[in-house]
Amino acid sequence: MNTNEKTSTQDNEEGKPWWHYGHAWLVFGGPAAVVVASLFTVYLAVSTRDTLVDENYYNKGININQQLDANAEQLSNAARNALEPAQLARNHAATGVHTED
Q1: Which of 16, 34, 57, 61 would be 20's cystine partner, CB 3.0–4.6 Å?
Q2: How far is 89 from 93, CA to CA, in rounded Å?
Q3: pTM, entire model
Q4: Is 16:10 a contact under the CB 8 Å cutoff?
Q5: Cβ neighbours of residue 98 closer than 8 Å, sequence gap 6 or more
């Protein structure tokens, strides 16, 4: 490769606008995408109205908590009954005495 060919390729490389280089798109593309996404998020936040799901949300929440507590108590009793054979077997293995209720 002679020096004339080298300088002609260097001149072509240096004379290109910035958008012809791939790494420039990587450098500017990420922040540009973030700016566009943030503008879209601001638009959504401003254009939609924030409303309550229900006007009586507090009392409904209390009722839901009471139902959850009742369900948890029923599940707790069922779990205790389901574990009873295992507890009897453990006690029998530890003491050698079999007890039945």
Answers
A1: 16
A2: 6
A3: 0.39
A4: no
A5: 88, 92
